[in-house]
């Protein structure tokens, strides 16, 4: 079923053809840098932009949802790939889609759900491009079952530094360097992705409360295999006997026979809800310890101790914040840091220590989630590994934040864990090799494939990738 004429839903402030120098930042809105931004509309324009990158090189960018500096390039070129947003073919019988890298997961859901298919992996926002999903090797609430996004990519087309467009198949070194490679092996142009069959566009959701971190980990360990999707919101301001208290939400795609009669008339309808945008200017300190503490306590207490088989929209279950445009503004002009790490199974004591340290430090995070990872995928810089992953947002202006996060990095490294590069904005480079054992291979492949250093980003310079 061809769909090349489907209009794009992507929006961007960047130019269509002629480059212009503008400040560029990540979703956390910290450390903006100025780059020449160009938005190619064809593969030929993308190749021309790569050839014209200049001494400071270039990096591809999607919808700007990487939290840190992965899609920034100070003094160089940034290629806004959202202009390449065609869905070429959908194999309705086989369950695959071939699309441009600039297509968003939101657009795929709009097109695929009415056909009975869903994206195999989605993070906490659907406003991520397919190219960004591959470059960051994104994960979701189903990693313990489905792995990360790259596991479902059959092949991709990659524009490399020599101007060649290569078809890259899974199982090859270039595929493994590109999936999770943060755009540093080339510009992803297209991808063929295997999809997930669904009967409805609703989720069947179970919710329960966990009284503390140990209770939460026990519940996840004992029963997670019963659910395709699983995530726990965790109150990181709770202390004492309540340290790590959580709300655990798990579910799966609802079967047709679970829907009430009225909903069965259009069971695959994809509906989203849009709330007013966050204001452009928010007072500094709005999300401080007091306000977040009150929010966290209310959120925990209002949640039923146990609720089963609740029907929720896909957008509510996976992407609640997408309903609030520009929600990242609520942190004020200083922005925020999203910190995510993973430590392996058997390292639960390290996780306990880190959660206790965050609680004692009184980090005002109301977007903190804990998940279990399954087997990692083959990407050399792919983040997931079997273990526990905790992600939290912290206002960037919190006093002493840099030194505190450095201490957490040391804890993670000592536990043989790692931090997520797609969310990182401040990791010290000397810790990187211990976190990513195949880093040397990645660097060597980059030297061979891109000897002139055409593809580069602020993240790559900071960490020596």
Strand order of the largest sheet: 16-13-15-14-18-19-17-20
Name the overall outline.
globular
Average pLDDT confidence is 93
Which percent band covers the strand fraction?
A: 15-25%
Q: What Rg, in angstroms, do the CA atoms define?
A: 21 Å
| Helical content band | 10-25%
The SS-based structural class is alpha+beta
For the terminal residues, how far apart are their CA atoms?
40 Å
Instruction: List low-pLDDT spans.
Output: 1-16
* Main sheet characteristics: 8 strands, antiparallel
Count of separate DSSP helical elements: 13
Number of strands: 20
Q: Gist?
A:
This protein has 465 residues and is α+β, with helices and mostly antiparallel strands. It contains 13 helices and 20 strands.
Blueprint (SSEs and pairs):
Layout: E1 2-3, E2 20-24, E3 33-38, H1 43-51, E4 58-61, E5 77-80, E6 87-91, E7 96-100, H2 105-112, E8 117-118, H3 130-135, H4 143-146, E9 153-159, E10 165-169, H5 173-178, E11 187-194, E12 196-197, E13 202-210, H6 213-223, E14 229-234, E15 246-253, H7 289-302, E16 306-313, H8 314-318, E17 336-344, H9 348-361, E18 369-373, E19 387-395, H10 401-414, E20 418-419, H11 432-435, H12 439-449, H13 458-463
Parallel strand pairs: 3-5, 4-5
Antiparallel strand pairs: 1-6, 2-3, 6-7, 7-11, 8-12, 9-10, 9-11, 13-15, 13-16, 14-15, 14-18, 17-19, 17-20, 18-19
Helix pairs in contact: 9-10
């Amino acid at each position: 079923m061809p769909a090349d004429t489907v209009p794009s839903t992507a929006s961007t402030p960047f130019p269509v053809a002629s480059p212009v120098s503008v400040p560029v930042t990540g979703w956390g809105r910290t450390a903006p840098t100025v780059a020449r931004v160009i938005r190619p509309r064809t593969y030929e324009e993308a190749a021309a932009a790569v050839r014209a990158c200049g001494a400071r090189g270039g990096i591809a960018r999607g919808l700007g949802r990487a939290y840190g500096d992965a899609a920034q390039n100070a003094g160089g070129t940034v290629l806004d790939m959202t202009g390449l947003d065609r869905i070429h073919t959908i194999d309705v019988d086989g369950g695959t889609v071939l699309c441009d890298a600039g297509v968003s997961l939101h657009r795929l859901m709009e097109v695929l759900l009415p056909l009975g298919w869903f994206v195999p992996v989605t993070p906490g926002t659907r406003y991520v491009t397919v190219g960004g999903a591959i470059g960051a090797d994104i994960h979701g609430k189903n990693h313990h079952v489905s792995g990360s996004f790259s596991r479902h990519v059959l092949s991709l087309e990659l524009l490399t530094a020599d101007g060649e467009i290569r078809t890259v198949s899974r199982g090859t070194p270039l595929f493994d360097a590109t999936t999770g490679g943060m755009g540093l092996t080339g510009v992803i142009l297209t991808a063929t992705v295997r999809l997930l069959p669904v009967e409805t566009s609703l989720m069947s959701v179970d919710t329960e409360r966990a009284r503390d971190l140990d209770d939460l980990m026990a519940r996840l360990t004992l029963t997670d295999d019963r659910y395709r999707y699983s995530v726990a919101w965790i109150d990181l301001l709770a202390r004492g006997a309540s340290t790590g208290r959580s709300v655990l939400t798990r579910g799966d795609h609802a079967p047709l026979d679970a829907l009430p009669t009225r909903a069965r008339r259009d069971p695959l309808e994809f509906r989203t809800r849009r709330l007013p945008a966050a204001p452009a200017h928010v007072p500094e300190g709005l999300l401080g310890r007091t306000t977040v503490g009150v929010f966290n306590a209310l959120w925990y207490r209002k949640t039923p101790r146990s609720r089963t088989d609740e029907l929720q929209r896909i957008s509510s279950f996976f992407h609640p914040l997408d309903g609030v445009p520009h929600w990242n503004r609520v942190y004020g002009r200083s922005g925020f840091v999203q910190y995510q790490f993973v430590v392996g199974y058997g390292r639960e004591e390290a996780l306990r220590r880190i959660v206790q340290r965050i609680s004692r430090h009184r980090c005002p995070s109301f977007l903190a989630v804990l998940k279990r990872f399954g087997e990692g995928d083959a990407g050399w810089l792919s983040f997931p590994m079997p273990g526990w992953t905790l992600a939290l947002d912290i206002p960037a202006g919190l006093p002493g934040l840099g030194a505190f996060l450095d201490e957490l990095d040391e804890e993670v490294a000592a536990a043989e864990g790692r931090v997520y590069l797609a969310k990182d904005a401040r990791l010290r480079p000397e810790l990187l090799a211990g976190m990513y054992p195949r880093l040397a291979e990645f660097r060597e492949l980059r030297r061979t494939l891109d000897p002139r250093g055409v593809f580069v980003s602020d993240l790559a310079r900071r960490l020596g990738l």
